[in-house]
Specification:
Number of helices: 23
Structural class: alpha/beta
Helix content: 25-40%
Length: 641
């Protein structure tokens, strides 16, 4: 297989003047001469025909690749990621790589094929595009599968063996195909180090930044190994019109080198509620990482939409929404967790760990999780002469209680029997419908909710809101009105059963005698409580991703929201802070029973059971089927679809 970027078919040998042996007798036979001429003509005809067929075949192949790229370009402009990725191989790491800004730029511009070469089912293509007024080109790989052409990350045989050489800065590793640029790359690295760390530079370099190994990689994989630096090959990032590494490569190499050798300053956004906690954590972090300075900024002072945040925000203490990931604004952490030998990924509660993953990749660092319980008015149950809920009750029992309480206490001034100002009851109901984890712990068989479970849950909800005084319908209210109603209705003698945060247990106990139970389950399984995993992400635009990664690792060992009784992501932190033993006894009992069967609300499920969807059910404007169909279509690449 050709390892160069200037693929060529072998040229024919040039014809040299024929030398005859004049000692031999001349050919005089006319028949012999005719035979030779016919043979030569036949051979030349076959040769020209084969050459013509080869040219036509290559033209058809080039047209096929161009057609595929055009369809990708159209899907990209439409923000239709689901369509765009049908043209790609099914690989989670490749999906993540295509969301990187340097790759999105190509499909935004619309690439043009300039050359193709096929080896079996694999195809190498030289594609060209315009960016910032410059013409760039790179290599792209494709493959025929079941008669269809798709793009693939690479063809392993193309790159050749990885070769290393000792350099002044440490070691340089390049594959055979990129070896011709080895000297140029080495000179550039030495120059950047001199400019950054030399006597004339304004700032000092990190003491332990050298020696290091620089690998010019055949992919977009990153690493958190301290003495390793990886930069994609210029054939992947971009070559100029002459086929030499372009500014796209040199700029990324410079940025990566400077990130490795210079002290870092990162800007990290946090809700004002926890601003002081994080500022104190940043001071403690500086003691263990003196080369990294963390500036804490207020989330509320940034634009409401994270997609419009300034590029100098390196990360934030929020769990990213799916649309942030599909827009390419969230850094994939999977390579870091796989390569960082100092990162203990085994010290996480499994159900909290799962909440940070989307499409096979990890997108934020879990720090804690919020789980709700069900509180109930004990005196109301006594007045209705009904047994109080057990710690392991079922949905049938809960639904029966709601209807029986409405019948028994209809003359009392209750505004409703049940209240949930969140969507946790609906998630719990849906999770239980989808629970088929026979012989396997719930935390090891998490899967996205099925449309059947969502539909059945909406039907259950509609049946309750259509029954007088059973459930408080908050779907028509504004967020402010909803918060006010939740506070007002949970005051004594206004609601009997409600979903609530554990931190408010004492608040309600001062107002009325209450009981605490987990969400219901079934005769086969205990109830499944939703977990809202909280944590921090790194911006894809961060100039200091590795420094921010160190900060996120540090945060995963802190208990920065302990006043909210969030479950720490790490068991070691829960043990160190005595999290479980400090809970009030009724809350402790309910949470200890519920927590082993909790299930994270996955990133792709954040938008399920929206208030607008529930309002359409309440008003009768939509059926459950129609409400599911009305869910907002996911926007990809930061573009409206």
């Amino acid at each position: 297989m050709s390892s160069g970027f200037d693929w060529r078919m072998d040229e024919e040998d040039s014809d040299e003047p024929r030398k005859f042996n004049h000692d031999r007798r001349p050919i005089t036979s006319l028949a012999m001469m005719v035979t030779v001429i016919v043979a030569i003509t036949l051979v030349l005809g076959i040769w020209w025909s084969a050459r013509d067929q080869s040219a036509k075949s290559k033209a058809r192949l080039e047209a096929s690749v161009q057609e595929l790229l055009d369809m990708m370009h159209e899907a990209y402009l439409a923000g239709d990621g689901d369509l765009f990725f049908t043209y790609q191989t099914d690989d989670s790491a490749w999906l993540s790589a295509l969301l990187r800004p340097e790759n999105q730029a190509i499909y935004l511009a619309g690439p043009t094929v300039t050359r193709v070469e096929q080896f079996g089912n694999d195809i190498l293509a030289n594609i060209q595009w315009r960016q910032d007024g410059q013409t760039n080109q790179r290599i792209a790989f494709f493959q025929w599968r079941d008669g269809s052409l798709i793009q693939i990350p690479t063809v392993d045989d193309y790159w050749g063996p990885l070769e290393g050489s000792s350099q002044a800065f440490g070691r340089l590793q390049v594959h055979e195909v990129d070896r011709k640029w080895q000297r140029e790359i080495t000179s550039f690295v030495v120059r950047v180090i001199a400019e950054t760390c030399g006597p004339s530079s304004s700032g000092a370099c990190r003491a332990n930044s050298r020696p290091f190994t620089l690998t010019i990689a055949p992919d977009f994989t990153t690493t958190a190994v301290p003495d390793q630096v990886r930069v994609p090959s210029p054939r992947l990032l971009g070559l100029d019109e002459r086929g030499r590494p372009s500014a796209l490569f040199w700029n990324q190499l410079r940025q990566t080198l400077e990130t490795h050798i210079k002290p870092a300053a990162i800007r990290f956004a946090v809700s004002e509620e926890f601003l002081l906690n994080y500022q104190n954590a940043a001071v403690a972090f500086a003691d263990v990482q003196p080369d990294i300075r963390v500036e804490i900024v207020s989330l509320e002072e940034l634009a409401p939409d994270p997609l419009t945040w300034p590029a100098d925000i390196d990360g934030a203490a929020i769990a990213p929404e799916e649309r942030m990931i599909t827009a390419g604004r969230v850094l994939d952490l999977t390579d870091y967790i796989d390569s960082d030998r100092g990162f203990n990924k085994g010290d996480f509660y499994e159900q909290i760990w799962q909440g940070a993953w989307w499409r096979g990749r990890m997108w934020f660092m879990p720090q804690a999780a919020e789980m709700r319980l069900l509180f109930y008015d004990r005196q109301a149950y006594q007045r209705a002469e009904m047994p109080e809920p057990s710690l392991r009750w079922t949905w049938e029992e809960m639904t029966g209680d709601l209807k029986n309480l409405a019948n028994e206490l209809e003359e009392l001034p209750f505004r409703a029997i049940f209240l949930d100002s969140s969507h946790d009851t609906l998630f719990s109901y849906a999770f239980n419908l989808d629970n088929d984890c026979r012989g396997q712990p719930t935390v090891y068989c998490t899967k996205p909710l099925s449309s059947q479970a969502v539909k059945a849950t909406l039907e259950w909800y509609r049946s309750l809101i259509n029954t007088d005084s059973v459930i408080a319908d908050l779907s028509m209210l504004s967020p402010e009105e909803r918060d006010h109603a939740a506070i007002n209705l949970t005051s004594p003698r206004r609601v009997i059963l409600w979903s609530e945060l554990p931190v408010l247990y004492e608040h309600h106990m001062l107002r009325q005698p209450i009981g605490v139970v987990p969400f219901p389950g079934s005769e086969r399984f205990d109830g499944i409580s939703p977990l809202w995993v909280q944590g921090s992400f790194i911006s894809q635009l961060s100039q200091n991703p590795l420094a921010t990664w160190e900060w996120l690792k540090f945060l995963s060992y802190q208990s920065l929201a302990r006043q909210k009784r969030l479950v720490p992501a790490r068991p070691s932190v829960a043990l160190e802070t005595n999290y479980w033993t400090k809970l009030p006894r009724p809350v402790n009992e309910a949470m200890r029973i519920a927590f082993p069967f909790t299930r994270p609300v996955l990133i792709e499920e954040y938008g399920y059971f929206s208030w607008s969807q529930l309002a359409s059910l309440s008003s009768g404007d939509r059926t459950p089927d129609e409400a599911i169909q009305s869910m907002t279509r996911l926007r990809w690449f930061g573009r409206d679809s």
